[in-house]
């Protein structure tokens, strides 16, 4: 029903243009011949036939309504004016009354004519008057035919003779057809009047809404013109002041209902439009200053270490049809689809990976636990907390360029520092390493695979996460669950997490099973629910975890019964409210986060300029910086330039690999050694003296993990030493 459309409808197909086909005894398909195809299954063949029959009837009705609307469409469009419609209805009403009057007159005159003919037949007239009587009869016959045509009453079969026609016909004429038409016209007239009133009410509502929007627009214009307290642009900033706080006039988001936020914008400190090291032959679009980018960078970051930023420029309102881009990408790998920045957020995937450390204090607390089972509870809570930032974050991060890095040095404030590097481009893979002076190390290599399924997008992170605690030597590993983005085509985007996570302590054998319950329309359970059990190597449950991945996680200690059966004791854990411990609770979002991509407090600081970072750092990526400052058209152009530069670099490496392979084969032939088999691409056999080396990550190296026996990129050291010396000579030119 229409009432359900707002909250339960997952999509619609117009039956008038739909194709309904039967697949087998229980399955049938409804398709519109384009992107929408619904595969439906009935419980039996009888039920399937009932559905198909009902849908075919509804389709026939929809086709008929469509044809009727097409026939009357032009008239209805030309008569939308209220006065014209009312005049038309008034004229039609008067014509119906005239028709009713004529109907009465025909009946009256028909009776009079019948009486006259009867009197004429009764008279004794001379023989020469026969012709006159015949002429009168013919005229009566013509009157009968005309009356029949108007009143739509067929003559009686026995009234075929001319002589009897007037008498018998006029005695049986009924004005019923005229009266039916009159009633029908009056009924339709009432329907038209009702439709007219509905259209009138709707127009009034639209006028009121338009007036309200016009007032808001004027208010925003005045506020924009009055916001003159912004810091003036200096030659070192390389950008104008109006880009730093909010989008230009007309680019404000339709969702910014609270206009008072507009006056808080001057609190944002100025940032450069484009970051990076000045390189020979690299002309970065959007910069026209004679001052070098290094000088711009130093000018902007001199105070960022002291105070972390709490605002970024508001997201502008650029409209773009997602379906126009995604409709040709069904079933493809998302990382291979060229996407404009309009669907991005101004952070890279490396920065999103670093956001896992937002609740690092959970690992700090875990490091202080003496019990490995209690420690496992905090590790499980940390695992769940990494998803809390995704609940409203429906935009995708930038795909990092090969060799791109991101560092987060919070050693002084929070006791840890983190480094990420993009170690592979196809498939995209990022390596991450974080060390804490509070007694833990976190490392991971994540390969993101994603598939667009039409109505939803599945994102499947592959790779193992390792967490090692220094004092106890406890080594935990786990993998991430599947993230699904729903309503890609129609409706508001929303995100869900589903699957199981198994966290294993490889030193003790302790284990935790976390279950992320997928959202269901028909479930009465709490949304985004997560349940977990912490058990020892024998499988005995010691703690039960309960919560949601977007809010909090609680821990209940299991009170074992006399039989020490963990399965019997699990329900009792929920009853023991006094044993409940709050492991983790999500931090509230910053004020007006909805205008800033729903970034958390940590996310707002990740792209802030910092002094001394590597030239490959994500903060220096120009297209990402342009997008953050609201200059999306320039960001799209810059993104294309960077991607083309990356493609050229890859082709150059492949060509060098091919040349090195040929040189290696030639060198072996000169020494009389035949080559063994065809050389592998990008792994040439190089003789001594050949300078070429295939691409390798700068700060990570690929090794076989002794715990999981998987090949993974592990931090090999050297980054923080290079930063201390400010020696970035090994860094590639990627921006």
From TrEMBL:
Residues 617-665 have a biased composition (Basic and acidic residues). Residues 196-223 form a coiled coil. It is a peripheral membrane protein. GO terms for molecular function: sterol binding. It holds the Pfam family Oxysterol_BP. It comes from the Eukaryota. Residues 1-60 form the PH domain. Keywords: Coiled coil, Lipid transport, Lipid-binding, Membrane, Phosphoprotein, Transport. Transmembrane segments: none annotated. GO terms for cellular component: cytosol; perinuclear endoplasmic reticulum; plasma membrane. It is found in: Membrane. Residues 608-688 are annotated as: Disordered. GO terms for biological process: lipid transport. PANTHER family: OXYSTEROL-BINDING PROTEIN 1, OXYSTEROL-BINDING PROTEIN-RELATED. Belongs to the OSBP family. This is Oxysterol-binding protein. The lineage of its organism: Eukaryota, Metazoa, Chordata, Craniata, Vertebrata.
């Amino acid at each position: 029903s229409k009432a359900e459309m707002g909250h339960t409808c997952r999509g619609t197909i117009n039956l008038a243009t739909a194709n309904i086909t039967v697949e087998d005894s229980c399955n049938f398909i409804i398709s519109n011949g384009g992107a929408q195809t619904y595969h439906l299954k009935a419980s039996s063949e009888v039920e399937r036939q009932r559905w198909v029959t009902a849908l075919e009837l509804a389709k026939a009705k929809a086709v008929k309504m469509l044809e009727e609307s097409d026939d009357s469409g032009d008239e209805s469009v030309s008569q939308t004016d209220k006065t014209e419609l009312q005049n038309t209805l008034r004229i039609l009403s008067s014509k119906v009354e005239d028709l009713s009057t004529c109907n009465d007159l025909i009946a009256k005159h028909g009776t009079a004519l019948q009486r006259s003919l009867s009197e004429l037949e009764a008279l004794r007239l001379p023989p020469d008057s026969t012709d006159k009587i015949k002429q009168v009869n013919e005229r009566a016959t013509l009157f009968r035919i005309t009356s029949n045509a108007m009143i739509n009453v067929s003559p009686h079969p026995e009234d075929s003779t001319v002589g009897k026609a007037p008498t018998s016909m006029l005695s049986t004429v009924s004005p019923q057809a005229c009266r039916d038409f009159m009633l029908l016209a009056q009924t339709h007239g009432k329907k038209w009047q009702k439709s007219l009133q509905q259209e009138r009410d709707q127009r009034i509502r639209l006028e009121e809404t338009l007036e309200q929007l016009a007032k808001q627009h004027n208010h925003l214009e005045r506020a924009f013109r009055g916001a003159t307290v912004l810091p003036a642009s200096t030659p070192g900033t390389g950008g104008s002041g109006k880009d730093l706080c909010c989008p230009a006039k007309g680019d404000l988001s339709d969702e910014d209902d609270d206009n008072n936020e507009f006056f808080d914008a001057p609190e944002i400190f100025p940032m450069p439009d484009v970051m990076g090291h000045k390189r020979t032959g690299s002309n970065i679009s959007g910069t026209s200053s004679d001052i070098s980018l290094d000088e711009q960078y130093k000018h902007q970051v001199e105070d960022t270490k002291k105070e972390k930023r709490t605002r970024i420029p508001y997201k502008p309102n650029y409209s773009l049809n997602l379906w126009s881009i995604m409709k040709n990408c069904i079933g493809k790998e998302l990382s291979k689809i060229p996407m404009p920045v309009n669907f991005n957020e101004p952070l890279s995937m490396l920065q999103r990976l670093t956001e896992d450390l937002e609740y690092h204090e959970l690992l700090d607390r875990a490091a202080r636990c003496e019990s490995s089972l209690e420690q496992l509870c905090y590790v499980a809570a940390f695992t769940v907390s990494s998803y809390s930032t995704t609940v409203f974050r429906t935009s995708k991060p930038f795909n990092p360029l090969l060799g791109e890095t991101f560092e987060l040095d919070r050693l002084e404030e929070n006791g840890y520092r983190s480094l990420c590097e993009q170690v592979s481009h196809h498939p995209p893979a990022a390596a991450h390493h974080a060390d804490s002076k509070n007694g833990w190390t976190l490392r991971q290599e994540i390969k993101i695979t994603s598939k667009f399924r039409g109505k939803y997008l599945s994102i499947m992170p592959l790779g193992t996460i390792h967490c090692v605690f220094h004092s106890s030597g406890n080594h935990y590993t786990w993998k991430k669950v599947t993230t699904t983005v729903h309503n890609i085509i129609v409706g508001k985007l929303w995100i869900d997490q589903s699957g199981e996570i198994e966290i294993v302590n490889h030193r003790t054998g302790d284990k935790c099973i976390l279950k992320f319950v997928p959202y269901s329309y028909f479930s009465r359970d709490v949304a985004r629910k997560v349940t977990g059990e912490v058990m020892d190597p024998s499988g005995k449950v010691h703690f039960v975890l309960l919560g949601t991945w977007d809010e909090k996680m609680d821990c209940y200690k299991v009170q074992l019964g006399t039989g020490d059966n963990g399965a019997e004791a699990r329900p009792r854990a929920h009853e023991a409210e006094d044993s409940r411990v709050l492991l983790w609770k999500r931090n509230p979002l910053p004020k007006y986060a909805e205008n800033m991509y729903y970034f958390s407090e940590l996310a707002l600081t990740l792209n802030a300029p910092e002094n001394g970072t590597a030239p490959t750092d994500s903060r220096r990526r120009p297209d990402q910086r342009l997008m953050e400052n609201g200059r999306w058209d320039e960001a799209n152009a810059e993104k294309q330039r960077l991607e083309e530069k990356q493609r050229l670099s890859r082709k150059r490496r492949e060509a060098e690999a091919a040349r090195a392979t040929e040189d290696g084969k030639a060198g072996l032939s000169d020494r009389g050694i035949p080559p063994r088999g065809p050389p592998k691409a990008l792994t040439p056999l190089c003789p001594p003296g050949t300078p070429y080396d295939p691409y390798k990550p700068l700060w990570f190296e690929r090794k076989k993990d002794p715990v999981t026996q998987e090949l993974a990129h592990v931090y090999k050291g050297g980054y923080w030493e290079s930063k201390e010396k400010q020696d970035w000579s090994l860094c590639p030119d990627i921006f």
